[in-house]
Amino acid sequence: MLINLQELQQHSVRFTVDIPAGQIDFDNKVTQSSVLHAEGVVELMSHSLGDIRLQGNLQVTMDAPCDRCLEPVSLPIRSPFDLVYMPASEAIEGGEEEIDEDAVEVGFYEGNGVQLNDVLREVILLALPMQLVCSESCKGICPVCGQNRNQRECACQTAAADDRWNKLKDLRAEIGQRH
Ligand SMILES: [Zn+2]
Ligand SMILES: [Zn+2]
Question: How many A from CA of 118 to the centre of ligand 2?
Answer without folding.
Answer: 42
